[in-house]
Amino acid sequence: MNQSAVTTFPVTDEVGRALEVSLRGVDELLPRQEWVQKLARSQATGQPLRIKLGLDPTAPDIHLGHTVVLNKMRQLQDLGHQVIFLIGDFTTLIGDPSGRNSTRPPLTAEQIKVNAETYYTQAAKVLDPARTEIRYNSEWSDALGARGMIELSAKYTVARMMERNDFHQRFTDGSSISLHEFLYPLLQGYDSVALRSDLELGGTDQKFNLLMGRHLQQEYGQEPQCVLTMPLLVGLDGVDKMSKSKNNYIGITEDANTMFAKVLSISDALMWDWYTLLSFKSLAEIAALKKEVEAGRNPKDAKVMLAKEITARFHSAAAADAAEQDFNNRSKGGIPDEIPELSLSGAPLGIGALLKQAGLAPSTSEANRLIDGGGVRVDGGVVSDKGLRLGAGTYVVQVGKRKFARVALG
């Protein structure tokens, strides 16, 4: 056992504060006492800890759910530690089986390359690029070769692998499990060996893979990493985890107005979880704000503050201010300063056809449904007649609170 594993370092107040930052919003930190000693050693020696986050570029865009672990990385980065943003270009060829009930079709190398090119650009909106080490796991995984892969596979048993909930469930259900899927947690664990990681972060669904890294480091004679899991962010619907497939997400590349409005749409109860996981405010500031709301302050004030903070992070403070003004304007029935302008022919034109041609409704039947629901306005007036025909002229057409178009009809 190496000396650092047996030496006990003093736990100072500064180490205690670093532990508090580490624990903010986490689901689990394992083993906690080992992490305390790593922090204490870092303070005593001046040697930053190596903190790893791996993301597979399975899609080109990152949403707010992904930024929960990125936020934690930034917090630890601000404590002076070395963060490693690992792009899993090799492991994406396999496909992470975590939480899957079937074999995931692997992406092509070309698809992975395209996705990876945008990943770090987006992550850099949260992390400090000047203090972030960017790595690709093909760097050492390609070099393993057949012999290295066999040697790596010998360091874990099939019985232990089948303890994974998803593998166990699929086996019980008679669903297929491909042999290459067993390689995924082994290769993710080997990343920790290659990088000599002190701490690895991930969502709660990654716990097995993160612990694999700890196991393999011990197999290779290294000090084992600690493991930190973050909760999965609940999406806009307040029910399921944020996901593009559930359409309850906010993409970090969405325009400022849309981002601001979507944050304001979450429930008052969900807002406080989002504050803990997404805001850079201190826990003391959040607790004080929550106390003000409980004492009678309008919860919308707190939600606006959160919406502006998130929008400013991915755009700018000026864009967040403009988004707030745009939202207020829309909520009062006003017309935004900038709306799409287009020209249509065929006057007089039925309102349903106009909505479809203007891109405000996917079909005439959907346009009629919107009219029945009172969701269509022309020049500020609610349209109730589905048979309305508009003559030549220019009209401001509105669907719902957020869709507008200035239509020149000829």
From TrEMBL:
Lineage top rank: taxon: Bacteria
**Keyword entries, A-Z:** Aminoacyl-tRNA synthetase, ATP-binding, Cytoplasm, Ligase, Nucleotide-binding, Protein biosynthesis, RNA-binding
The answer to whether UniProt assigns keyword Cytoplasm to this entry is yes
One GO cellular component this record assigns the protein to is: cytosol
Q: Where is this motif: 'HIGH' region?
A: 57-66
Annotated family:
Belongs to the class-I aminoacyl-tRNA synthetase family. TyrS type 2 subfamily.
The protein, known as = Tyrosine--tRNA ligase
Q: Which organism is it from?
A: Alicycliphilus denitrificans (strain DSM 14773 / CIP 107495 / K601)
Encoding gene, per UniProt annotation: tyrS
